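The following record pairs a protein chain with its ligand, dinuclear copper ion.
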Amino acid sequence: MTRDLRMRWLTPALALLIAVGLSACSSFAPNTIFGAHSEFGHSVDVLTRRLLYAGLVVFVLIETLLVVILVRYRERDGNREAKQFHGNSTLEIGWTLIPAVILAFIAVPTIKTIFKTQAKATPGALQVEVIGHQWWWEFRYPQYGIITANELYLPVGRTANFALTTKDVLHSFWVPKLNGKRDLISNHTNYIWFTPDSAYAWNGFCAEYCGTSHANMRFKVFTVPPSEFDAWVAHQKTNAIGSALPAPAIAKADTGKAAQPPAPAAVAPTPVMNVSDTMSATFPRANLPEWVIPKTPTPAHLAFDQSVTGNVTRGATLFKTAPCIACHSVRGVPTAAGIIGPNLTHVGSRTTIAGGLYPNDLRHLQLWIKNAPEMKPGSLMPLFGKNEKGATPGVYTDQQIADLAAYLSSLK
Ligand code: CUA
């Protein structure tokens, strides 16, 4: 290669390298594991950094040595043969001992972290049962008799202990900013616990390939001050229909042991916000950080008649005998006791639908009821829109769907 040719390649290659390097400098990283907001996440964070930096030192040392040797002992005066010898005890002992020391350096903190994070949760922890479904999350709070879907509320400063199971295939429970991943395994209960250290809203994901809509199996975590968690619990325990939102100062619910003080903030600057002023029973939508609002585009050819307006009363009447009740429960509606799909008791107060895939508003709800498989590949929920093409024929007009959507939205 001539010098000119080499220079022609070198400049774009360097530019590309710099561009790729700079692309990692964005401060907007809502789903990173670094700067975690729980003691569990913090332990993993510390370990990751320690191994990364130690690995970097080894990498730089070895590569420098390699380059020095290549340059210094390159062929210079003809084909003079290198000095030949057999065996070198000092070198051999050296290259056995040094990796052993490096491995010990990696193993000791790793094993310590594993024992720490695998230990049993503290007594008095909030118990949450996490049940994986293709492709949504069921959350049960057995201490309070609450069942919800795709949205977790957790009190800041109190350890939450999650019992992980699955109804079908393997899934993995992951909230990057709060905890490490842990799998949901068939016929086995896994556990994971952590204590959120600040109030905010976080993204959660399924981190184990589980079929067509694996990437669409998301959830939200709202970490709120204990008093607001109590308000949320009290509200979730009520029947949805006709129940007024409770006043912010709610009678103390059964919280088990007293809340622990928040862990000292030992991590990166916290994007904490004060939700106390605005939250009544659910996380205020106006305060949602941008990253928890899904921006999934809807299928272009899926249309809905914008001239119809839904009616809550008509929707409620229709719902009582609609096929919806075969799969969904609504507390307070005796006929709706299905357990295959998400519990819809307070669906109107959730921020997302369809396993965190779409924002929870009338427009998305209407499209979802009209043709769920089109909105989410592989969805077990069938389509209901008349004239929609799919595995099963739809039965409802846009007017009926608008009524159903209006009713579901009213289930705050
Ligand atoms: Cu559930 Cu991937």
